[in-house]
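Lab notebook: predicted structure, single chain.

Context: the supervisor wants predicted structures on file for every construct in the current expression panel, including those that have not yet been purified. This is the next one on the list. No modifications to the sequence; it matches the entry in the shared construct table.
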Amino acid sequence: MEEVFAAPPRDRYQVLTEHRPGRLVLQDSGLGIERTDRMVLVQVVQQGRSQEQKQALYARLAERLQDRTGLRPEDLVVSVTENAREDWSFGNGVAQFVAGEL
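Prediction complete. Output recorded below exactly as produced.
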């Protein structure tokens, strides 16, 4: 996220969830991609990134996960969802972007 999306250091809000085999279903969408039981789904919520940045993220994630964990690129599915500044509250019941705190 820092490298490709230029996210500030420590701007991290992550949820890591492991699923037993058979509890995460990521079927082929007609592309002929064969997955193993080591598949990984990465969901990113962001705002203001370009199509080029998103495509760079997909490629870099596949590369880094393969290098660091041996995960096959075929076993990685990435979904990027966009939201707006008013869609975030980082605590205290305040929308910090809207309130001008960020």
